[in-house]
TrEMBL record:
Name of the protein: DUF4982 domain-containing protein
Keyword hit for Hydrolase: yes
Limits of the DUF4982 domain: 8-64
Alphabetized UniProt keyword annotations: Glycosidase, Hydrolase
Parts forming coiled coils: none
Residue span(s) of domain Glycoside hydrolase family: 79-180
Family to which this protein belongs: Belongs to the glycosyl hydrolase 2 family.
InterPro entries the record matches: DUF4982, GH2_Domain-Containing, Glyco_hydro2_dom5, Ig-like_fold
A single MF term (Gene Ontology): hydrolase activity, acting on glycosyl bonds
Species for this entry: Subdoligranulum variabile
Length: 185
């Protein structure tokens, strides 16, 4: 729920829910309950404002089933780099998927920001691919530089044939680089 420059503009919000109805709340203001159809409740003409958006799912008796919230990213933009594993098996096709996010200081993804990120892999592994879901981007997945999409990108690293450390460094212009280590065993 981070759309810098869209403040005060109306948008459509779709809530995905298996409940009978869903309610949408933005900064304490309810946009009411809508009946779900094919697991979706569509709220038209929602005014975007920074803060918190909450979706609540209700069963057929009006009892709350679940709720989820998203908040606007706060603070200066920084890189968050997280690997799905810390070790890789040597001499295999074992892969580590490394999530790259542009976040606010609070850790919330800044979905309205995109920038080119460069991934450097040193040691006992190699970068296999780097990309995002950006359609028609004209960038090569085998390059070490790629533009994020809605503040996100994904790098794929494979361990080599020899055990050792793998150092992965992610850089973006104007942001502090982030480094993480993997181990090939």
């Amino acid at each position: 729920w981070s759309w810098a420059g869209c403040e005060g503009k109306k948008t459509k919000v779709t809530v995905y829910s298996d409940g009978e109805t869903a309610e949408l709340i933005v900064n304490g203001h309810s946009y009411g309950r809508k009946k779900t159809k094919e697991y979706k409740a569509v709220f038209k003409r929602v005014v975007y404002e920074p803060g918190t958006i909450t979706a609540i799912s209700y069963d057929g008796e009006g009892k709350e089933q679940s709720r989820t919230s998203m908040k606007t990213a706060a603070g200066a933009t920084e890189l968050r780099v997280v690997a799905d594993r810390s070790t890789l098996q040597a001499k295999t096709q074992d892969l580590a998927y490394i999530s790259i996010d542009l976040t606010g200081a609070d850790g919330t993804t800044k979905s309205s920001e995109d920038t080119a990120v460069t991934v450097e892999v040193d040691g006992a592994g190699k970068l296999l691919a780097l990309g995002s879901a950006r359609p028609n981007m004209g960038e090569n997945f085998f390059s070490d530089t790629h533009t994020t999409y809605y503040g996100k990108a994904l790098a794929v690293v494979r361990g080599g044939d020899v055990p050792g450390k793998v150092t992965v460094t992610v850089k973006a212009k104007g942001l502090r680089a982030k480094t993480l280590e993997l181990e090939v065993i």
